[in-house]
Protein: 3-isopropylmalate dehydrogenase
Organism: Thiomicrospira cyclica
Amino acid sequence: MTKQVLLLPGDGIGPEIVAQAVKVLDVLNDKYNLDINMTEGLVGGAAYDVHGHPLPEATLEAALGADAILLGAVGGYQWESLDIAVRPEKGLLGIRSNLKLFANLRPAMLYPQLADASTLKPEVVSGLDILIVRELTGGIYFGQPRGIRVLENGERQGFNTYVYSESEIKRIGHVAFQAAMKRNKKVCSVDKANVLEVTELWREVMTDLAKEYPEVELSHMYVDNAAMQLVRNPKQFDVIVTGNMFGDILSDEASMLTGSIGMLPSASLDANNKGMYEPSHGSAPDIAGQDLANPLATILSAAMMIRYSLGREDLAVRVEQAVSAVLDKGLRTGDIFSVGMTRVSTSEMGDAVVEEL
Ligand code: NAD
Ligand code: IPM
Ligand code: MN
């Protein structure tokens, strides 16, 4: 049966990079019977400008009804002074929470062709293949109470609440352990259990859960050390599981191990592998509208969508191989450029991937 894919290009470079992924999906539809129907919706600042809200009712309805969602990015300078409740980012967070997309998978894999593009020494990153499993619908991002209040002395105070319930920790833990079973059977749980009770509980629950996965080796690491170890010796990791905010920060750090944040895809999944797929980077307002952005993280996110939500592993592999072939040819957007390579634009990179298909 034809699957419904909702495209949410969003803001900044979002429309430019999603357009490249659509070219790829069009070819897969025409040539390899992917059998999807794509519709487009508004989210983020683009939605705010039309409807006064970053997640209009129609977009949420479409998202709930779709088999999968491909999102570009949201946010930009022009919306930064808006009330936080209607900021573009709230549109993205609203989809994640309404669709219960609690499991964010961010695979940091170095294409060998890009060993020179990383700011780290080639021997530190060569062969890198780690998976960050980030909890996406809880933690300090969503904890209540939150806000800015006025204290008795007239001074303002900002506050957020860092909470995780046992069931939330367990369900993301299962995702990490199950992923590790298909990989190198190692999970590193990252927390701040030396200071924060919420992650003391996180550590306890992960330790208990590990008993259900005797083949998997569980280790624990404090987040500050993890940030350091990721650049010291990233290949010590297989699967990293962590909360929403630590996962946000560590995945941007990990992206540089793969050459550029423009290379890091992601899948945000619910309990039934329904999902939203998005590059891990943002709307890059500094380069938006200039045909400069790297579309590969978005194209690779589309590959994850094809794998997890559309059930076509064969075509996901095909897309990943096409990306690899394009890198073999020496084609590089500015963010992954190195001497001797051929510099291409966003759309030329998209065309090159299409050509390989
Ligand atoms: P960013 O990821 O947008 O950009 C950081 C840097 O990386 C910039 O120099 C940018 O040019 C570069 N970059 C990012 N993606 C790139 C790509 N595909 N190709 C080449 N270079 C790329 O982060 P930021 O500057 O902190 O945030 C900008 C806006 O994006 C903010 O409004 C933020 O809230 C939003 N944001 C959205 C998402 C999302 O939609 N998932 C993620 C992160 C940030
Ligand atoms: C990401 C982004 C988002 C997050 C923002 C834009 C809400 O940084 O997808 O990594 O913090 O989750
Ligand atoms: Mn982020």
User: Anything to note?
Assistant: The pocket of manganese (II) ion (ligand 3) is lined by residues 248, 252 (CB under 6 Å). DSSP finds twelve helices and 14 strands in the chain. The chain has a mean pLDDT of 97.
